[in-house]
Structure formats: structure tokens, C-alpha cells
Amino acid sequence: MTLGGTLRAVVTFVILVLLHYTLRPLLGWRAPMDFLLLALLLASIRVRPAVAALIGLALGLVADSLTPESLGAGAIAMTVVGYVASWLKAVFFADNIALNAFFFFLGKWMFDLIYFVVEQRLGGIELVQQLLLWSPLSAAATATAGVLLLLIMRPMLEPARA
Amino acid sequence: MARAIRSGSSSRIDLIVLGTCALLALVARGLPPNLRDPVATSMRRTFLAPLVMLQERAEASRRSLLLDKERTAIRDSVTLRAMQVKSLEDENERLRQLIGLGSRLRWGFVPAEAIHGRGVRDVTTMTLTAGSNAGVRRLSPVVSSEGVVGMVTDVDPTMSQAMIWTHPDFRVSAMSEDGSAFGIVQAHSASATSGYLMELRGIPFRTALKPGTLIVSSGLGGVWPRGIPIGRVIEEVKTSEGWARTYLIKPAVSPADVGAIMILRTERALKELDNVWSSVTAANQAAMRIVQAGDSAAKSAALAEAAARRAALDTTVRDTTAGGQIPGGLPPELRPDTLGGAAPLPTDSAARAEAARRAAAARRAAARRDSARRDSINRDSLQRDSLVRSPTRGN
């Protein structure tokens, strides 16, 4: 990846992180969109799996620092999601909006699955309700936001042509 | 071959890094709470501080937005309550006045509620919630605490229909409060554009009424008893009739404000009603007169007091001077004790007469002063009374 492409990816990453801490609390939805996960997924398709795992660990710890009782759960989930996303980038991240949306949806659902299982705060019917109702809704919102961002920021995210 | 070896090596490195990251995350997850909290807090206070601040501000903005909706809702409900309070106060005031009217009428009336219609014609008629079962008869006068409202035209057992004074056919024989002018009151024909007004017709040309003169029912005609307020004179209306005057009257009762009313029974309408409506008006006018009289009495009392002091001083000075003309002056038993005390003994008959006149003037001034004080006390009590009774609306 060229220097310009790297800079554009970093700027996009920072914007998504900022959106996570501004737009998300402002909207206050029950099934919120996850801009941190979008940042991780968009970064993972541009780096090696090991780097994606490191980025996932860092982002997870950042997210967990606001919920100390679940510290580490988000880090594990994001590490795994980042690593897997980086491995699967060749399969999923084609120039197809629907495929990209599915990629974001799957990433967010997988993250929630690992997060709530590792966190062990919810159990029984609550866990089932969370994983089968609220997590898919949140994943759908995240996928929609991700697709919109891809459409808006396409010139910024496309690799520079020679 | 070399690429495959490099690829396999990279995969191993990736797996090692993944395993290390997963291990670190698990270590973080496995931290005891007493270590977990300081780690999270230190992260929030250092490199995450800007992000935490952003999130706090976003949440504060969201709270503000939500509270703004709540504030608007609260403001709306408070405004609604305030409007309701005003109407309740008005209704309370009307009912209070009606109760006062009932206590002054004592007997022979039927209390009822007026139900207003919404049609064009309904501004001249209204339905009353009392009928023949309660003693209401056709042509029974309908009054409120302010004065004339209308007249019953149709009676059912439980309801009745009344013609308001705004009806074109409504007439009432009227007179000025002092009985100096008699005429017929009816709705003003041009009221549709100038609001609800009345006109007093048939006043003899030699009789002029001043604006503000109270017009009451005269008792002639056998329907309306004497003394019910109708309205107050606004101005004279120029007409082509040369033999009589016509006056524009501001009605005592506004049709839109009519709610609770009284229907006078026939036997009560035949009796005297002079003191029923006039008591409040009379009390107000008496209070006004007393205020004016009290002011002038206090002024004259102050002047008289000053004159008495001057007279006493003059007398003392003259007596002292007269005493000086006598060698050794007056004997001690004849000298004045104080300036304001009893009048000094005169030395001759003329001086004695003058002293007696001044003493009488001083006594009169003191009496006037006491009277003025009594009047001011009465005035205060009357003002309190009128406040309690609340003056008649529209008068």
C-alpha cells in the first residue's frame, strides 16, 4: 500500500473512532451501530492478520476501558474478529456493496457473540435474546452505516492508481 | 518454494501474534476487580481522555435534547393549567356574585345554567337548565349578578328557552337610576359590527343623560321588576326623531359571559327589588364620596388646627404684652401656664369676647379633626367591604 493510501486509511480510521464517541452516544439507540468495529474491519482488510489482531487488541482495550467490569472481553472479541477479517478479506471484500454489507454484518455479530459469551454477564434467555434479537439489529445498523460510509468515502478508500 | 516457506513463516508469525494478543486479552479479562479498575481508570485519564470527553459531551447534548422536549411539554402543561386557573377564577367569581345575589333576593328565584348554542341565531337565545317543574314560567325575567340577561320564551318541564337582550324583539322599560328619565331599552341595531350594545330610546328631548349614568329597569310593563341594572350610558345617538333622544348603552351583562343565572318567579318579579342590585353600587359610591369628603375634611381640619395655634400664640403674646403694661405684670394666678393650655383670662370685656370666640373656633377645629379621623376609618372599612363584595361587573 502506498503512503497516500496508508494516510487515507489512517484518516478514515480516526474519523470512525471519533464517530464512535460522538454520533453513537448522541443517537442513543437501543441497538447501536459500532463504528469501532467498522474501523477495525476497514483496517483489517489492508493489513496482515497479525497486525489486525494487534489493532483489534488495542481497540478492544480502548472500548473496555469505559466498562471496567468487562475489561478484556471486548479485547478478545476484537482480536479474533480482526484476525479473521484479515484472513477472509480476499473472499468478502470485493467491489460489491451487498457483500461488503454482509461482511460488516457478520463481523459485528461475531464480535457480539464472542463478547457476550466471554463477558458472562448475561445468561439464559437474556443471552439468547441479546444474541438473536439485539445483536442482529445492531449488526444491521452497523452494516448500513458501513455501507453508507463506503459510498461516501469511496474516493478516499480506493487505492491510488498508477 | 521460497515463497511457500515465507508464507508458512508469516502464517506462523500471525498465529503467534494472535495467540499473544488473545493471551493478553484473557489476562486483562482475568484481572481481579481491584486491579481491573485502576487499569481502566488510568487508560481513561491518559490517552483516552479526549475520547471520553467527546462521549460525555455527546451524551450531555442528547440529555439536553431530551430535556428540551420535556421542558417544552412541562411549559405547555403549565400554560394550559394557567388558562384553566383563569377560567376557574372567573367562574368562581361569577358563582360568588350569584350566591350574593341569591342571598339578597332571599326568595322567589330559580338558579340555572345557561347553555349557549353555536349557530348564528343562538347569539340571541339560550337554553336554561330549569323548566316548569322548578317554577319557571313564560316571560320570567332572567338575571345575573350583573343585571338583565333576558326573558324566558318557551318552557319545558326540565328545560326552558330564553331570549337574550341581544334579540331584536327584546324590550325592557328602563329609567335612569335617579328616575329623571324613562325610556325603552333594546338591542342596538348596528351591534353586529360594533359589538353587543344597547340603545335607550324615547328619552324626552328636555332630559339629557351624562355618559356613565346607570340605567335600570323601571318596573313598568309588568314583566321586569324595578331596579335591575341594564347598563351605562355611553353617548347620545343622533337620530332623525326631533322629539326624543336615543342613547347608546354599554350593557351590564355580556352575552358571552353568561353562565350561571337566576330566573325570577312571577310572584317575586312583582315585588320590590330596589335594594338587591343597588347595594353593591351604593356601597362603592358611598365609599367614593367618603374618600372625597374625608380628603376635604382632613384638609380643612389641618387649616383649622393651624389657625387655632396661631390664635393661641397671638393671645399669649398679647396677654404677655398687656401684662407688661401693668407694673409687675399679671398676678401669678392669672398668668397662662402653657401656650396650648386653657385660654388666658382677658383683661377687658372685648378681649374676653375675642378669647371666647377663638376658644370656640379651636373646639370646632378639634371636633372636625375627630370627625375626619372617624370618616377615614369608615372609609377604610368600606373599602375593605367593597373588596370583599367585589364591585358589580360592567358598572
Describe the structure.
- The complex is a heterodimer of chains A (162) and B (395).
- Chain A has 162 residues and is mainly alpha-helical.
- Chain A has one domain.
- Chain A is built from seven helices and no strands.
- Chain A has helices at residues 3-27, 35-44, 49-64, 73-92, 97-119, 125-152, 154-157.
- In chain A, α1 (3-27) runs antiparallel to α2, α2 (35-44) crosses α4 and α3 runs antiparallel to α4 (73-92).
- The radius of gyration of chain A is 15 Å and the shape is globular.
- Chain A starts with a helix and ends in a 5-residue tail after the last helix.
- The model of chain A has no long low-confidence stretch (mean pLDDT 85).
- By secondary structure, chain B is of the alpha+beta class.
- Chain B folds into three domains: 37-105; 106-274, Rod shape-determining protein MreC, domain 2 (Thrombin, subunit H), CATH 2.40.10; 283-389.
- Helix content of chain B is 51%, strand content 18%.
- Chain B contains seven helices and twelve strands.
- Chain B has a six-stranded antiparallel beta barrel with strand order 1-2-5-4-3-12.
- In chain B, α6 (274-325) packs antiparallel against α7.
- Chain B starts with a helix and ends in a 6-residue tail after the last helix.
- At the A-B interface, α1, α3 and α4 of A face α1, α2 and α3 of B.
Keywords:
heterodimer; A: 162 residues; mainly alpha; 7 helices; B: 395 residues; alpha+beta; Thrombin, subunit H; 3 domains; six-stranded antiparallel beta barrel; disordered C terminus
Describe the secondary structure blueprint for this structure.
The complex is a heterodimer of chains A (162) and B (395).
Chain A: H1 3-27, H2 35-44, H3 49-64, H4 73-92, H5 97-119, H6 125-152, H7 154-157
Chain B: H1 2-30, H2 33-45, H3 49-105, E1 109-115, E2 125-128, E3 141-143, E4 148-155, E5 160-164, E6 172-176, E7 182-187, H4 191-194, E8 198-204, E9 214-217, E10 229-237, E11 244-251, E12 260-264, H5 266-269, H6 274-325, H7 349-389
Helix pairs in contact in B: 6-7
